[in-house]
Amino acid sequence: MTAMPRRQSPGLPSRQQILDFIAQSDQPAGKREIARAFGLSAQDKIALKALLKDMADEGLIDSAPGRAFHRMGGVPKVTVLRIVDVDGDQPIAVPESWQAETPPPRLRVQERGRRSALGPGDRILARTEEKGAGWIAHPMKKLARGEELVLGVLHAEGDRLWLKPVDKREKRDWPVSDAGEAEPGDLVLAEKTGRPPRMTVKVSERLGDPFAPRSFSLIAIHKHGIPNAFAVETIEEAERVAALPLGDGREDLRALPIVAIDPADARDHDDAVWAAPDDDPANPGGFRAIVAIADVSFYVRPGGRLDKEARKRGNSVYFPDRVVPMLPETLSANMCSLKAGQDRAAMACHLTISKDGKLVAWRFTRALVRIAANIAYEDAQAAIDGDLVGDPFPRELVEGALRPLWACWAALARARDAREPLDLDLPERRVVLDEKGRILSVAPRERLDAHRLIEDYMIAANVAAAKALEAKKAEVMYRVHEPPSREKLVALKDYLKTFGVEFALGQVIRPATFNQLLARIGEDVDFRPQVMEQVLRSQTQAYYAPRNAGHFGLALGSYAHFTSPIRRYADLIVHRSLVGAYGLDPDAKATRLTAEDAAAMERLGTAISQAERRAMEAERETIDRYVAAYLATHVGDLMDTRITGVQSFGFFATVEGLGGDGLVPVSTLGAERFRYDEAAQALEGEESGDRYTPGMKLKLRLVEANPISGSLRFELAEGASHMPVRRGGKDRRVMGRRGRPGNIRHQGRGR
Hints:
Radius of gyration: 30 Å
Number of helices: 18
Structural class: alpha+beta
Strand content: 25-35%
Largest sheet: 5 strands, mixed, barrel
Strand order of the largest sheet: 4-5-6-8-7
Number of strands: 35
Low-confidence stretches: 1-9, 728-748
Helix content: 25-40%
Distance between the termini: 66 Å
């Protein structure tokens, strides 16, 4: 039953007068401001409160935090906004809290005196105004990004609910003031409320069972704010462009046996390769090769919804159980995926390669391809090794496609060996799931010649793309990897000294310097893996930028990412620049790099570099959660471990061959007092002289494995076969501060 409106006092303003005042006020309009504006008496103020409640019940007005009122469906004069997109250089925001049944309005944010300071995910306190048919926001203050949101699992203690955060860095549980419909055991997003020391959390979103199969990646997606759903309009645009004819004027390469070699479980195929001996007498013993890349720039055009969404995401994110793609599946897994036997639009990089593997010449075309076969790495390797010839690998495919690829790769490998890029053979962990998402195994990923072959072809194409754009003085989004800083080199020198290994700082540091260091140490030395990890930590973080600083790790002077436009926005920018620089039809004018994007390359590079780091963090944390879930059934077992870091409160160890860092608290090391030697990064017993240092191998008992946070906890095993290092003993090995490898992200096909 609808409540009858209260009879209005003669001194009160009308509903329309209140609405007009709220709309015209240049400041937040609360009950006090309305009463002052209309000169209301104390008695009228009581009636005003009731009238405002009626207006809210009738859907005429709504209130924002702080009890300022605004027209229902409108936006408060001052409110918190979240940036959700960037249109050119202008951020687009939506109200962080929106209670109306209509979709939240999109506000154009006008930044004063600074450009591109805000990006997706940022939060601002802003003054708003309605202009014409749209809304404008004027930032007053940038707020902490996502600081108010906590991702965790609800649990009950007595009659109270608590939230246990999934982030390992959160050391406390939060009391829950409002759980909504969530129940103990649910994974939830919650908002911090109140002020220290009496802060609580209020559940804002219920995500479900955190232990259900495929939930671990969902945790990372929500924790890092990774966009994982496409708007209906974006999907509709993808379906429209997928139906576009491939266009006239493409180079027809369908007669060539071009093959795509990918992981067995690949969801998209954005590159394929072909090679043959060069019959040009001017290039004796050389080769011709083609690296065919999905022509994503033909479908994803500047300024469209697809482009804006791809830019916001920056890259695809790969988890063991799912992919969060940069582009909708209509494109990423269909029209832009190079599938065997189907005509596809491609950007073709034609390479002329000398007998010693040097790039002699290159050219780029928009082409039409029909892939001869999609081959898994393992199958391609088996075919070359002679273990897999016959159906489904006919001899003509092996002899006509694979063997020429391997012959050309032998030349590329000679060129790679000559320039001596950084060679760190650190294994990746591979999580294998069954059809229901349950963990079957966690093991290092096998590294085959087939992997190295594809990587070297992709590197060659990436170099050619950078040099082709430089030749035209066109915009290049470089993949930059700078040399290590002196501070990191000094830390590496001090670390190596603890192994008795000398490292001179006066020399010119090249990638080969580190390769030679590892060669001196030898293949069979116990501490070799620790040294490789420390060398990796000494490297700088690779990033994207329009200014070239070379790629130190690959020992290359010019390098750009060109080979994965389905999953990296940086590659799409390079494709567009090539289209414009070389007038590559069809539709060169509509698909080239725009002047606006050319002017914003610095900002674009920063944004996609940040998106890449976000993806790296999310992927790594998810693997840790899967490892913890896999080990949860082994709590109480003894594990072969290696110490990876030492702090005053204990040391961290990883399970050999599996990964996952676990803490051994110093309180569990025994009754004696342990002194932390900061210079040596060691824990030493004051009475026994027992020392625990990075690199030590020992058996530990697993006492806790938390799949939600991905954390492990170990204890020393009574009677276990390990001996702590004694003071004065030979083993005084030391490692730097605790940290994970990750300074150079392995980009797979061309880093």
